[in-house]
Design brief:
Length: 109
Amino acid sequence: MAKQNEPKTQKEIFGAAIGAEPDLVDRIFDYLASEIPGIDALALKLKEKTRAEFAGQECYISRRPLTERQKEVQQVLALFNGRNASEVGRRLGISRATVYRLLKQSGGR
C-alpha cells in the first residue's frame, strides 16, 4: 500500500529529491513539449544548451512585446501637443500619468 504523499511520476520524484520547484527554463520547455508533439528529445537538448548559455543570468520577461510599447509611444508623441495629456490618455485608453511617463521615457522626441 502506497503512502498518501508518495510521489507518483518521475517529475514528482525528481522534484521531491532535490526539494525544488521547476524553474523558468523547465516551465518554458515543458510548455513547448505540451504544445508541440514529438519535440521531447529535441527539447531536452535545447534545455541543456539554454542552461549552459544563460546560466546565472537574471532576466525580465515583459508582458507585452517591445514593439507594442514603441507603437504606444509613437501614438502619444503624435497626439500630444504639450497641453492635452488627459485627452491623449482618453483616446488611447491610458492614464494621464502614463502619457507623461511615456513622454519622459522617450525623451519627448
